[in-house]
Design brief:
Elements lengths: L2 H5 L19 E3 L5 E3 L13 E3 L14 H7 L5 H8 L3 E3 L5 H29 L3 H29 L3 H25 L6 H21 L3
Helix pairs in contact: 3-7, 4-5, 4-7, 5-6, 6-7
Length: about 220
């Protein structure tokens, strides 16, 4: 398989998330994150990815068809349009929506996005030859792994009704998102992960707002 074809493949690595909570027994049914086909010109020694997570168009929550409770919860976040748009594919069966069930769904959505970022970064790293570019991608890979780890700890904190750990891990996730983008900025290289990191940043910011402001044990 040639470089152009191999770098145009988006690997979706699934990670099982255990959603166990004494408050919510709803079944979370994930759908594939929206994907957009892009075709940037490959940079010698760096490679490129032709498929990334589609950046969501900024939309007011009044223009999105969603449950009133979901709109109400997302209205308290910094990115309500992205909050609703990323959560709609995750249906909650058998339970009415509340901040805890919405946060659990949001963590799963964030986890799926981080997994896609991890897969893309790993693929680009495998075909890149530029040492500095590879180093930046290694930072991104570690960043996505850290976000996934934090997501598991967030779910554990919800199950244990541990407010301190919940708030700590929600805040840690934001720091982890920034490290990937910062690596490319410091290297003065355009990041191939910019779309992923932009969406992830908004998602973890929304998770923090829901967890700290709305979740009450």
């Amino acid at each position: 398989m040639g470089l152009k074809n191999s770098t145009g493949v988006l690997l979706l690595i699934s990670l099982s998330c255990i959603f166990s909570s004494s408050h919510v027994d709803a079944k979370l049914v994930p759908a594939s994150a929206p994907i957009s086909s892009l075709a940037p010109s490959p940079t010698p020694g760096r490679g490129s990815s032709s498929r990334f997570i589609q950046p969501l168009e900024p939309r007011g929550i009044d223009k999105i068809d969603a449950a009133p409770m979901l709109k109400s919860i997302c209205a308290d976040t910094d990115h309500p349009g992205e909050c609703i748009s990323t959560l709609i594919p995750y249906t909650l069966e058998g339970k009415s929506l509340d901040p805890i069930s919405v946060l659990e769904a949001a963590v799963q959505a964030t986890n799926d996005c981080a997994n896609q970022g991890f897969a893309v970064a790993k693929k680009l790293h495998a075909v890149a030859s530029d040492p500095l570019y590879k180093s930046c991608l290694e930072t991104c890979i570690d960043s996505y792994k850290a976000i996934i780890e934090s997501n598991h700890k967030i779910l554990d904190a919800i199950a244990a009704v541990d407010v301190f750990s919940l708030n700590t891990e929600l805040s840690t996730a934001i720091d982890n998102v920034d490290t990937c983008d910062e690596a490319f900025v410091e290297a003065q290289i355009d990041s191939p992960m910019a779309h992923v990191d932009d969406l992830l940043g908004k998602m973890v910011s929304n998770n923090l707002a829901i967890g700290i402001d709305l979740v009450k044990f």
